Amino acid sequence: MAKTLELEFGTEFGKTARLSVENPKEPIDGSVVKAAMEEMIASGVFTSTNGNFASVKGARVIDRNVTEYEIV
Question: What CA–CA distances, in Å, run from 38 to 19, 20, 42, 64, 72?
Fold first, then answer.
């Protein structure tokens, strides 16, 4: 079971950019995630093909389960 925290930002051009963090520390605290996203925006370190990060749009955890079957 693999979990990914997906952070969604609005960009300076009105587009959406996403940043994924694999195996996030749980439990996820929404206020901590929002504060971290705001710090990322303020730092100006992150950018995308859609422009610089400008606003917090949302965050979600994606939980992926894979079941393999032996085929003989």
Answer: 13, 16, 6, 27, 52
